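[scheduler] slot 2 assigned
[scheduler] job type: sequence-to-structure, two independent chains
[scheduler] chain ordering preserved from manifest
[runner] begin chain α
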Amino acid sequence: MRLRLAFLLTLVLALAAPSAASALTFKINNESGHSAEDVYVTITGTNFNVPGMADNVPKKLSEVPQPLTINTLHSGRVYISYGAPVIGNESFSSQTRFDWAELTVTPSSADVANLTAVDQFAIGMRLETFNAAGGLLETVGASNSDAIFNALQGIPGGPEATIRNGSGEIVRVLSPLNSAGYPDLSEYVKSMAGKEITLHTGLFFTPFGTSEYTGTFEADGSITLHGSTDPASMAPAEISFNGPELIKDIYTGEGTPNTAEGAIRHDVLAAFSAGFWGGRYGNDAIDFCTNPATRSDRVGSWCPDRFNQPAYAAARSGPSAFPAYEQYAAVIAQYAEEYGNPYSDASSKVAIGLNQPADGGAVDALCLTVLPDAGSSGPGTATGNANCGGAAPAPAATTPTTIPPQTTTVPRSKVRFRLAKKVRLRGAKLRVGKLLCVGHCGQVRAVARKGHKVIARVKLKVRAKRRLLVLKLTKLGKRILAHRAKLKVQLVVWDTPPGSKTAHAHRKLLVLHGHHAARKGHSKRKP
């Protein structure tokens, strides 16, 4: 009887206890061209539980169990080096060529893995995740090293930041964090003197919040932002930047703690790094993304998918007499899906999720591929092979013809407006006029705003040359128009041509008079 009771008690406890999180399978695929005897692997981190490896103890790749099992690894790094082993504090002046990937396995649904060039770039690599059936889930990766090395030699400071071995071969190129050769961005920051900026920052904490802050730059780059958050008091009503510190922090990422205030500071610095402030999109950060989000129960808008407008040189209105974005980060962003500075996640995808089945996710395996120095690999190039080897080529008869991304032509749309003389408000709908599409308009989104407040909006697909443009009032818009006889609003229309991820913005001013709107004889187009 005692044995039966003990068995039943054990069974009840087992059923009541949460299931243990499954371990992450980790594979290293060597396509570097170096022998597995000449490639070394070092794994470091806290809460280290990786059977077959010891914390910060290098092994030849030929001696590493494949695949590895990662039970837990917090703030982990996987170092790859050629010719000699390295440990976690290896000097950046080392003649040994090394690079690393970063990952955290808690396990938790928030776990991620990424590549990084925040300190240096040395070896092109790729990360891929797979489900239990071997299906490819996500990938981030870099071009082959030679392509990135060559591009970095062509920017100011790049040659001075290049470390070579005794044979003259490039070992690594240091980032602005570790080389003084790159130009600072002081002239760019000071060129904003007297200009006002507006920030809309999503505060991804618990609870989620939004914020709106504005401020005007002083001559030395200092600025004090004034604003509020919803919920209230998540960040101070005033946030100040000292000009010289701001200029320094664009490269270093300092002064951006993991708080609501830190997130707002992060957006200021990230926009300088990417060349957004004073550029072609204006100085309202909501226009740095193509799909701003707004909720009727919350004050303010935010960019849910980062600053996803084309950045760096593409964000500038034209050439300038001084560096107006971070050129090292721009090269990394062009040739790799990895961190080129502390803000890279503000304008591009640089990480992949490691959400495992025990947490409701699908990730079963993570693969790190070490790429050869030469070749045609590029960002997003994945094998799709759960064994992490090169996928078998398709038969010649069925091999599709592909066009290299750099030669692909995306149709550029031309959008024109024909506003009605009297734009009628019918019920909750605001009939603005006609949208005239010359070329390929594709996806169109329009918003009428009073300052930062969204009065009306619409999202539609345009397949015809002409389309009525009718916006639906928001709850806020209804309340405002119920108490205002006359209201000036800005109409903003974004069109995204088929096959493109780039939205083109167009702006016009309207004046609403009660239940009708008269066309105002002024328009402004933003490319």
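[runner] end chain α
[runner] begin chain β
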Amino acid sequence: MKSTFLNNAGLLILAIVFSAGLMFAFVELPRLLDNSLQNNLGFPQFDHGGGGDNALKTELFIQGLHLRLIGYASLILILVLIVVGYATRRSGWALAGAVGLFLPVFGQFAFSMFFLAGLGFLRVGWLPFLEVSSFDILEMGKVIYVPYWILNWILTLVNWNPQNFISWLFMGSGAFLFTWGVLLWFKSRYSGDKVATSWIYKISRHPQYLGWILWSYGFILYSPFEKSMKMSWSVPESLPWLLMTMTIVGICYLEELKMLKITQGKYQQYRESSPFLFPLPRWLNRGLSWPGRLVTGSKYPERRRQVFGIVTVYTALLMALSLFWMDLGKTSAASESGEENIQEVKEILAKLEQAGDNRREIYTLMDQISQAGKIGAESFLTLASHPNNHIREFAIAELGSKKVLEAEDLLISSLNDSIRRVRSAAILAVGQIQSIRAVDSLISMLVYPRQSNNSFHIYGALGDIGDPRAIPILATGLDGGERYNQTAALDAIMRIDPDEGLKYVYTELNDKNVEVRRHAVITCIKTGKPEVADALDALLEDEDFEVRFYARQGIKRLKK
């Protein structure tokens, strides 16, 4: 009795350690290895995200290191691993290919890999898809978010924002199932059984794979669903996750074919009594398995070719459903945005009065008002003077983003609001509507700062407005200080008068702050003027790798 207890305890500890170690390897080790590549080996850290400057940096980096060739070769290698794995029954090769498809985006939603540095190089395998400009193929996996949308809709009915809960629900249940499956697999091997059939194996023939699928699904829910800008290297997760999952489904079938041969019929009996991945009602299971029956002509695939056919058919169907949903969603959104449902807006306004200081709820309600057409814009004009400073802030931001010119006087007066967040929203808004009348107030806020203001936002607003009177005050923002302010002031000057601004760019090329020098190099390249190549040539001996790299690539680009 004591020996059995100790054996079970030991196997439990082993299962927990194995599961935790595997998850650690996919979450923490990439971050540690990435930091080591940068901090210990001096590997450069390149910028990330969308926007004109970062898109140009990415393009220069891709060209300079021939990443297109590497990316296409990497993708071909991954696909070869999967195909050869299926063809030769080497499920490990196919699994390696599946992980290869998914690993490049793992850092995006786990926040553990950085842009084009260290392990970020793994993303080059998706470059062929990012290069497709006419159609965003990486969005063709959005059907995978249907379970999340359903759960989210149900829980929001009780005024609960459940995204974090749903994410942890999937990750927690996935980790539990994976660990439980590993434990029972260890126990079956320890006892000499070739087929594990107890506990979790009665409701899933592949609990470890199911656990991994649920766990990884919970992780991708941390990422936003918006489309990523081309060349920003922010890879949408839906299609990679879908391809990985379907490849794993194929691996499960391959392993079952192997088990049928090893157990001489025992696994066939088990397969008839246990669901494939998770239990479903009989009517639903028959409906979902119908395409597979068309491929195989039977309940289960009996050959590798049939396994490959099942994976291909279901992947194509899910991608087609994603495409249908994307088109349907756009049509629906367009029709709803034109409606002016006065009663609905009144109900939302009533909820706003009860929101208090809950910024998340206020933002959600404001977003609903913004979709109500003209009546929504009129509501923001009223809400911009609301006693609740959070409501004022979001209303002013909406007026600016929608370029409501009738709000100009209100926005200018909001520049003197007592709340810093509200002032910042007003600063951005007057820039978005390009209010010439706001220029004097913005300059005054820089020259005679009566309150704490965000100079970065003021510089940006002055650049958006484009009034040459702002150039002298913007030039003072180039003299030391925070690099964000320096780069924002330089960008504003260049937007107002590119020819006048070039002399300031040349000065910033020699700034002591390396971030400012990098930004000045990119600004030079963006002008497209061949004469700036001489200024860049002087930076080829700069102490910073990125400055030298961008200067060298910029010279090649400009001389063409």
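[runner] end chain β
[qc] chain β: Residues 428 and 461 are 6 Å apart (CA to CA).
[scheduler] slot 2 released
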